Amino acid sequence: MSSPARKILLPLSQEMVEIVGTSQEPLPHLVQQAVERIKEVIGDV
User: 12, 22, 30, 45 — which has fewest CB within 10 A?
Assistant: First the structure.
């Protein structure tokens, strides 16, 4: 059973795994983007 909650994911690189359509931003930039998106989502509640 999966949760109906919204999920905000960080596209972290792993060996031999490629995520298409993501930018090669440093982790701190990705975290900041995630925080901004979470703020947007919470603002909509």
Answer: 45
- DSSP letter string over 1-45? ----S--------BTTB--TT-----HHHHHHHHHHHHHHHHHT-
**Dist CA 36 CA 31 (whole Å):** 9
Query: What's the gap between Cα 13 and its chain centre?
Result: 12
Q: What are phi and psi of 39, to 5 degrees?
A: -60, -40
pTM of the model: 0.67
Mean pLDDT over the full length of the chain:
85
The Cα–Cα gap between 40 and 2 comes to 23
Residue 1's pLDDT band, with cuts at 50, 70 and 90, is low
